[in-house]
Specification:
This protein has 126 residues and is an alpha+beta fold. It contains two helices and seven strands. It is elongated, with a radius of gyration of 21 Å.
């Protein structure tokens, strides 16, 4: 009889481990990354800093820039391609902003005249 209870416990533990493994997305560790690395978000911005970063949805981008000189606008693909914002786009102007990446496409530009197309970045998780 003890053998049967032990076997049942093993089965229950295996089922619990499987359920936890299937829900591992709920336990992922999110990180923050300074956009542009050491050079930051400026006209010399280079997307190359992303090359070896294993990004995932929920990670955060930290944009550091001189207040009043640049900004960060969260735009859609049309805004990204055309370097334009719409009244419904969120535009940050504080000089430092942290934005969580979401599932799907993430598009960011600086909407200050002359900044884009150099100051734009996209991350797509589709």
């Amino acid at each position: 009889m003890a053998e049967g209870k032990g076997g049942t416990m093993v089965v229950i533990m295996v089922i619990c481990l499987l359920v936890m493994a299937l829900q591992c997305d709920a336990y992922r560790v999110c990180s923050s990354y300074v956009v542009g690395g050491k050079t930051g978000w400026n006209k010399n911005f280079n997307n190359g800093w992303l090359d070896n970063i294993p990004l995932q949805p929920c990670d955060k981008f930290v944009f550091n820039y001189p207040k009043g000189k640049h900004n960060v606008a969260v735009v859609n693909k049309t805004g990204f391609d055309g370097c334009k914002t719409t009244p419904s786009d969120k535009v940050y102007t504080s000089g430092k902003v942290e934005i969580a990446l979401k599932d799907g496409a993430n598009y960011f530009i600086s909407s200050i005249s002359g900044d884009c197309p150099r100051m734009k970045i996209k991350v797509d998780f589709t």
